[in-house]
């Protein structure tokens, strides 16, 4: 595969420079509205399903409803990210979110119908995400892309946490119906911003005559056949997917060392570590040093988890979780290399494929850790996650160095 020319080196970008780009501000606002609005909506729907049915299974299905359609959309629809103008695609995506949330707010739907509507939205979620990610290298040349992407990661984590925290308060004040109408309002605002604040620029690839699904499969195969691109995709998927399995063990681990309520502290420490890693690696470390630290940072995602074999107390466990997720900053360099490694005409699909594989891998990692927890103590499962992560990093060292 012919690589695009590397972006010019720019190591003096600051947050003010990134936010000085009008379209980036719009995309940033869209991302914040998307993550925050969806967090509030899913929490409200889960509570609503439980109140109506009394079934914990129904509530869990609603809460996890975005996973399967994301994978399907990534397999069949990703080529749209490079073949449809960004303004048109993002406007349509947020209008779909608005329409579905309004129907859900009206209420009265059985759980299967609710799941079907969520499936429809989730099917196009990877396309919307890929469209946004593909615009960043165009708007932020050189090292500005790394800073912009780190901002997206930090803000997504912050918006998700704030959305879930605010969701609990909103449910107490507005109830499930009122909270859903508020989520619909955020989707409507996102649609307006997409329509009137994103410039009407042509897509990087022609529409062509090939069907969307066939084109998506064709380009996915092309990307995965390229050894360099495949290596970068595996670097983006495996260390994170294997290490995140440890987070699926936080509740039983916290119960073993004190109280299950401590799981919240462990997850908060993990979120804080990820936030700090993206800030330090994206903002405070220059491009040359960042390149040299990619392999050590990737190894850091797994190394601290080995210490869980000794079942440390909650305070030490929080420090270990934060240290491990700090290493996730390595992914900024991997994404920068991926942008440079693929032609512009398929950049959106390449970034979308990276996100889709990461979503799938994290779900598989958590599921595998849960299955292993049937035979091993939670502390030992977390240590196994760390060992598996380090093994993946060693196997991929040529692509990470």
UniProtKB/TrEMBL annotation:
Top-rank taxon, per record: Bacteria
Record's protein name: MFS transporter
Keywords of this entry: Cell membrane, Membrane, Transmembrane, Transmembrane helix
GO cellular component, one term: plasma membrane
Cross-referenced InterPro entries: MFS, MFS_trans_sf
A Pfam short name: MFS_1
Membrane topology type: Multi-pass membrane protein
UniProt-listed PANTHER family: INTEGRAL MEMBRANE EFFLUX PROTEIN-RELATED, STAPHYLOFERRIN A TRANSPORTER
Species in which this protein is naturally found: Actinomadura syzygii
Ranges that cross the membrane: 57-78, 169-194, 228-245, 265-285, 297-323, 375-397
GO MF terms held by the record: transmembrane transporter activity
Compartments reported by the entry: Cell membrane
Main localization, broad class: membrane
